[in-house]
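Propose amino acids for all 185 sites.
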């Protein structure tokens, strides 16, 4: 099974609902291995917009790496994402980025394809990706950039960390497996 780390973000409409719907769609397209907590974050790259809620998801599926990009785009379309070419980092109902992909053997996939650059070319600079990633994988490494814990301490990222606000009141949970027994109450 190929694994991928996907970053989810929303700052328009039902932000929490968009993230929950994306996790449900991802679960329907592969095996969701882990879901981070949600963090409320200031906008990155374009400050004149509402705050975001961000999380990351680790998913596994028996697909080629490009399929994760197609899945990300399908989640965005389902949330009504409209791209504004004048505002590359502008507001959005849902943004799903493919951060990194690993082969069945656990080797990182590296790609310079402009449509699917792997690992994500700016992930090492984004506290809103790295901090949630630590929630689900404390010993994670971003291919080509090193340990995520070290990246969080880099000056470029550490300056953004204080602005991230954990939102435990907005839990993202794994959907139950189709053959799982009902929860005990």
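Proposal:
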């Amino acid at each position: 099974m190929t694994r991928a780390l996907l970053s989810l973000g929303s700052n328009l409409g039902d932000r929490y609902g968009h993230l929950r719907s994306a996790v449900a769609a991802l679960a329907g397209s592969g095996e969701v291995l882990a879901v981070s907590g949600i963090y409320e974050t200031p906008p990155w790259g374009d400050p004149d917009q509402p705050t975001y809620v961000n999380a990351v998801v680790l998913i596994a599926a028996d697909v080629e790496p490009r399929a994760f990009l197609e899945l990300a785009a399908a989640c965005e379309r389902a949330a009504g994402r409209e791209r504004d070419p004048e505002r590359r980092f502008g507001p959005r109902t849902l943004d799903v980025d493919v951060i990194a992909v690993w082969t069945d053997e656990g080797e990182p996939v590296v790609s310079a394809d402009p449509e699917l650059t792997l690992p994500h070319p700016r992930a090492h600079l984004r506290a809103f990706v790295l901090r949630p990633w630590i929630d689900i994988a404390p010993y994670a490494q971003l291919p080509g950039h090193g340990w995520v814990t070290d990246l969080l301490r880099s000056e470029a990222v550490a300056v953004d960390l204080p602005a991230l606000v954990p939102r435990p009141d907005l839990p993202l949970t794994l959907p139950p497996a189709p053959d799982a027994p009902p929860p005990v109450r």
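The chain has a mean pLDDT of 92. The chain has one domain: 2-166.
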